[in-house]
Design goal:
- GO terms for molecular function: cytokine receptor activity.
- It comes from Carassius auratus (Goldfish).
- It is built from no helices and 25 strands.
- By secondary structure, the chain is an all-beta fold.
- It folds into three domains: 69 residues, Sandwich (Immunoglobulin-like); 93 residues, Sandwich (Immunoglobulin-like), CATH 2.60.40.10; 93 residues, Immunoglobulin-like (Sandwich).
Length: 298
Amino acid sequence: MCLIYVFGALAITSGVFSQDTTTLSETRDLFVAVGSSVKIPCSDGEEKGVEWRFNNSVLVSSPVLSIQNSSLKDQGIYTCHQPNGDLIQTVSLHLGYSPSLPDVYCWSPSYPKRAICSWTLTPDPILPTHYIATYRSFSDPVSSARQCQKWGEQDDRQCALEQLEIFASEPTLINITAINALGSSTRIWPIIFEQIVKPDPPVNVSVMVMPGRKLSVQWGPPTTWPDPVNFLLKYTVKFHWGKPETARTMGPYESNKMVLSGLVAGRTYYIQISAKDSLDDGQSSDWSEPISATVPIN
């Protein structure tokens, strides 16, 4: 158990961070790690009859507010009042966690143009957390690190690495640092560009019924794959009927079309396509959304 005694304008320990840049009649933010115990003295703690309130409900008559083994339900606004009810100070209590080591995952849907890295923290810090993401070649000095650019409108735990060297002789190091009021943590993660290639699923999948119980299937390369002419993809076709456990795969194909033959009349088939770098680098894409077609009886 971590016991913290908070006083004055600024206090910081392994379990709590408090900062007051306002007058006593305004709010002071107090950040506390979940599970910590904290004592908060009223600014006029010598006066008898001082009263603490929590979210406007009377909590305790004491010059010092004690919270043992704090939990998320303790979050809220605490106010200290004189015996006549006048406000002395306001404290906004925020509960959360110091950042854990980020778990990093990187992939390249746009080889060789860029790679994308995302990360998660367990448990979630809950508190506002800022991230610094940089990357550099293994043997380059730290000062040469480039900023990993934010990727996506809403997600601040995802960024893009641009202009990576292809077929490099050494890994690229991505450095993710998470910072909040309770602390910070850093993960340095090595990646080999070719090993993290993972295209997005193929697009514009279509199927056409042909005579002789056949289906003609066509598709296009993912729009995020920047150069399908010089950096070829190969494709695998998966189809099933009735239940997914009946699925069969065919391929790989270097072209963007194929024909399923020997099918059963009257049966509906569900077809999906997956893409992979033609040199077998990295992983296959996820499957495209299924498209269906029924083989005519006559």
